[in-house]
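Appendix C: a fully annotated inverse folding record. The material below is reproduced so that readers can follow the format used throughout the book. The structure is listed first as tokens, followed by the designed sequence.
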């Protein structure tokens, strides 16, 4: 699949500002923890280059110990600074503002859960976003429906898609086995114009990307959810056991 002609006006924002308290990060940001001898975030950046993105199209939103990230990548990418942790939607907005002016659509990725994405997965998401001409696209995946650790994607009979944060799960919706990966594509002009009016997620006290997806629907704009074919490509690294498991998975893939 050759997307180079379409990529010229597409940008990427990678969220990389978090500390990683549960992972025990003190001297480096969470995304700089090593996964098979390379920072976690290094894998998705390499994948983006393989897809065909140039460094000026890739913005890393950095915060905690940001010099560690900047020292590692140098001038290979561009940066935005999120000094105050106000949520994923705020981080995405911060990154979008520093992308080149010609960028019309933006891929949003988390730097700590995207190490296993294949180039074809990124390419397909971008292609579907452009072909369908939607305002927002979400990549979803299957999970164990017994888990309360993840939010849910509820597809209603009306065609509306509700993204339920894990803090709002109950006995009626927890049996859904589809969740958001946190990987989105948005129309840049719409998002940057919408964000100043975005409400916070009350139980979190921050601005979340699922709210942006919901607001697009409330405005009558088209959105879509694309399900990840291989759920093993998405793996969050939040705790020491998860980092150990990720190392096992990465070694297995490399073999």
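Designed amino acids, in order:
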């Amino acid at each position: 699949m050759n997307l180079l002609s379409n990529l010229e006006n597409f940008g990427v924002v990678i969220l990389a500002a978090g500390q990683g308290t549960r992972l025990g990060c003190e001297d480096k940001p969470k995304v700089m923890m090593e996964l098979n001898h390379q920072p976690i975030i290094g894998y998705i950046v390499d994948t983006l280059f393989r897809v065909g993105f140039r460094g000026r199209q890739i913005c890393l939103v950095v915060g905690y110990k940001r010099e560690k990230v900047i020292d590692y990548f140098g001038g290979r990418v561009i940066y935005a600074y999120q000094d105050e942790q106000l949520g994923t939607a705020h981080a995405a907005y911060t990154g979008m503002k520093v992308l080149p002016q010609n960028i019309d659509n933006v891929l949003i990725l988390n730097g700590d859960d995207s190490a296993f994405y294949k180039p074809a997965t990124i390419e397909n998401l971008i292609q579907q976003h452009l072909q369908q001409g939607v305002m927002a696209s979400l990549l979803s995946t299957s999970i164990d429906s017994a888990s309360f650790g993840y939010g849910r994607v509820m597809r209603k009979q009306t065609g509306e898609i509700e993204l339920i944060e894990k803090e709002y799960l109950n006995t009626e919706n927890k049996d859904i086995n589809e969740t958001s990966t946190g990987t989105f594509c948005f129309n840049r002009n719409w998002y940057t114009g919408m964000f100043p009016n975005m409400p916070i997620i009350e139980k979190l006290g921050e601005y979340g990307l699922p709210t942006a997806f919901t607001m697009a629907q409330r405005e009558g704009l088209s959105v879509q959810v694309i399900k990840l074919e291989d759920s093993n490509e998405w793996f969050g690294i939040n705790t020491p056991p998860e980092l150990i498991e990720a190392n096992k998975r990465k070694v297995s893939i490399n073999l």
